[in-house]
């Protein structure tokens, strides 16, 4: 907590980097209050903290145009991070070996290691907990609607006596510091307030792992250091092999706390409004409070398993702008502009550009092109009562969350809680390195000279 902004206190609060009041986790596992940090600007006089936060251009008749950008945002902890959350892609032996080394080294520096609940059980040699699931229903073999009398495929019987395979394969305590298992901590999903207890998130895996880690924080999120251990690694700029050199300046016991450059990646918040049955009196802006889910890449409204195209009304700032008729609509962040939106024909947007991308999915139109809206826009998507599809699905970062019926709507706006990811060099350099390396942007043979 306690983010400070010497230049603009109000802007600092709206940036989402503020943790608010600091407090321990609710189940009292011994995790102390987190370390506060502040955002740094060039006005602070730091030679190693150069930030282009504002510029003024003189126009006709003495008018000045003031522009503000967060391309170079620097932050600094007030003291060493103490509570380090480790999030990793499970099932990869190389990642697990790296994770063991990280955990042992972080523990040796006097910091507290937080891991996922099931991983902690493996570390302590306890039984691996798996959520109970209902028996699989018999599968229909016909196209009949409802409960028909046609034959069905028997459900697969699962043996309750089988041993649960350890997903992590953490191994023994060999090579770990003495007492490490007892000092390691975890959290209770849905109960512990992680944003008040975690100083730094270390992510080892791919872009999906980073999205999963971001989903753990419905409010303010601490800085994230992402190591590449997946297949694409667009959002993971740090090589996994250099993890100690990367973490040493942040966690090393003998290191001096220095400012670091972060990319404040925009996230979305979403609200849902259920139908009142009145087609003529629909007005946006009457949605329920936002659901506790933050979208890092995109919010997708799609036809789901229906064979019909979807019909969606799109409103921007409570004004109707268009009707979508196709497979769906993508509302993407600048970070998500290189994900599903790119596959659907959307443009790539630099993560520091404050914009909202609307990209149609297979529109039944030759003139429907993606558009970029300002970050102040509030986008409402509604399923009209005249739609043929009786239900429409809403997916957040690739996972179906909500089902919309005729007359229902969602409202998407920029969240005040961005995802601060630590840069390897700078926001722009990291982004172009990913665009060129992972996506092979504009790759072709060079034309010969005349």
TrEMBL record:
Similarity comment: family membership? Belongs to the NAD kinase family.
Gene3D superfamilies for this protein: Probable inorganic polyphosphate/atp-NAD kinase, domain 1, Probable inorganic polyphosphate/atp-NAD kinase, domain 2
- Alphabetical keyword list: ATP-binding, Kinase, NAD, NADP, Nucleotide-binding, Transferase
Q: Does the keyword tRNA-binding apply?
A: no
Q: Where is this region: Disordered?
A: 1-29
One GO MF term attached to the UniProt entry: ATP binding
Single GO biological process annotation from the record: NADP+ biosynthetic process
UniProt protein name? NAD(+) kinase
**InterPro entries attached here?**
ATP-NAD_kinase_N, ATP-NAD_kinase_PpnK-typ_C, NAD/diacylglycerol_kinase_sf, NADK
Known Pfam families for this protein? NAD_kinase, NAD_kinase_C
